[in-house]
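Private note to self, pasted from the team thread so I don't lose it. Backbone tokens:
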């Protein structure tokens, strides 16, 4: 409720949720905001044509995908995940969302690990809102 309340007047049309824990609260946010839900998933999980981006992890590399018809330039997007640590996964998801030239992008996380300073990497792309700071 608190997260949805933060975005109540933002005109969110789509909540883009990052696999997989982001789906848990992302779906609830989309429902509360009256918005559509768009999954960002790992390789081989989405059934139609996708855009993809690879990114570095502390222990290797990974790839995220989004359907090519998931968003439009008229969408106001809330990119949501459960945890903001270094910001690497979120940056990859942002790169995917930016392919659609959306109207506005907001970033939300349930938990932020402040010492890892991921917020500073994401701030140039939109407002960052987090409920719990550790």
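Design output:
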């Amino acid at each position: 409720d608190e997260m949805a309340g933060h975005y109540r007047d933002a005109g969110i049309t789509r909540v883009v949720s990052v696999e997989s824990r982001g789906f848990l609260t992302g779906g609830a946010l989309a429902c509360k905001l009256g918005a559509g839900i768009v999954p960002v998933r790992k390789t081989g999980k989405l059934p139609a044509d996708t855009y993809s981006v690879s990114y570095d992890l502390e222990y290797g590399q990974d790839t995220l995908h989004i359907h090519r018809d998931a968003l439009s330039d008229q969408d106001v997007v809330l990119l949501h995940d459960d945890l903001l640590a270094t910001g690497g996964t979120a940056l990859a998801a942002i790169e995917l969302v930016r392919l659609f030239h959306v109207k506005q992008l907001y970033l939300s996380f349930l938990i932020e690990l402040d010492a890892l300073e991921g917020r500073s990497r994401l701030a140039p792309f939109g407002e960052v809102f987090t409920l719990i700071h550790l």
